[in-house]
Specification:
With 94 residues, this protein is mainly β. It contains no helices and six strands. Strands 1-2-3-6-5-4 form a six-stranded antiparallel β-barrel. It holds the Pfam family PilZ.
Length: 94
């Protein structure tokens, strides 16, 4: 069975620039949102990136910060579940 068939919700394919904001020294990891639905998303990250299990995903085109929890990791891809939203942090320039 294909991975897509295991999902409970259809994910819309997108190509959005985003930033993983960790809050640790106001650090961020640039990433790309590859597909998403109201409950989560698949992110493409640099393979060498250290991404914590929980973070704020800021998507400038949406103007929203999604509280995210990692559900799976594969090479340069990460699947996340959204647990809420919050405004863009005041320290982020985007």
């Amino acid at each position: 069975m294909a991975e897509n068939e295991l999902r409970g919700k259809h994910r819309q394919r997108v190509l959005k620039g985003a930033a993983i904001l960790t809050g640790i020294n106001n650090s961020e990891v640039r990433c790309t949102v590859r597909n998403m639905h109201p409950g989560g998303a698949e992110l493409k990250v640099p393979i060498e990136a250290r991404v914590p299990d929980e973070f704020l995903l800021y998507v400038p085109t949406d103007g929203v910060g999604y509280k995210a929890v990692v559900r799976w990791r594969r090479e340069d891809r990460i699947g996340v579940e959204y647990t809420g939203t919050e405004p863009k942090p005041h320290w982020h320039y985007g």
